[in-house]
Amino acid sequence: MSVFKTATLIGVCVSAAVACGYNQAQAQPHKKTRAYYEEREEVVWEVPMKEKLIALTFDDGPNPVTTPKILDLLAANDAKSTFFVVGKRMDRYPDVVRREAKEGHEVANHTYNHLYLNHRISQQRLEDELSRTEKQIVSLTGKHSLWFRPPGGFFNDSVVRIARERGYTMVLWSWHQDTKDWSSPGTRKIVDRVLKNVRNGDIVLFHDHVEGSMQTVQALETILPELRRRGYRMVTVSELIQHKKSNPLLGKPQS
Question: Would you call 181 a catalytic residue per the annotation?
Answer without folding.
Answer: no
